[in-house]
Specification:
alpha+beta; two-stranded antiparallel sheet; 5 helices; about 40% helix; 2 domains; single chain
């Protein structure tokens, strides 16, 4: 099936457009930012994975692990396991990529088989926006099952 692609937004233009479309669901945001293809039968497919990857890169975080190693020569795998004492350690490679500093605080939201960490800030709007995204993600997870 031949698909025609679009010219998706990237970088600052993408971030600005997402901010303007904050009232819309994430699939509609992705579509309006150009992250979709139209198939031969004129069916539109939204590319959420590409959209989220572009958002992360626009914010300075890349999921491409080539050449990114911590001081001990380990490549980030984006996987962790629970230790014997019940703890999960994320590691400095990831916190540095996110620009986190010692003392940064997070709220923990437990979902069905997942954990969301929501960074706390002095700006209440940021916390409300993060909680809205969390609730939207939670709803979408059950739709996919």
């Amino acid at each position: 099936m031949a698909e025609t692609g679009t010219n998706p937004l990237t970088g600052k233009a993408l971030l600005q457009k997402v901010k303007e479309l904050s009232h819309l669901p994430r699939r509609e945001k992705a579509k309006r930012c150009g992250y979709y293809t139209v198939g031969k039968n004129k069916q539109t497919r939204v590319n959420l994975a590409d959209f989220f990857e572009a958002l992360l890169e626009a914010k300075g975080t890349s999921l491409n692990v080539e050449g990114s190693k911590d001081g001990r020569g380990r490549e980030p795998t984006y996987r962790v396991s629970v230790h014997r004492n019940g703890q999960i350690v994320i590691g400095s490679t990831y916190t540095e990529k996110m620009g986190l500093k010692p003392g940064d605080e997070f709220e923990i939201k437990l979902g069905y088989k997942h954990i969301h960490l929501i960074q706390l800030s002095n700006n209440e709007d940021d916390v409300d926006e993060a909680e809205d995204e969390y609730e939207e993600d939670d709803e979408d997870e059950y739709e996919d099952d």
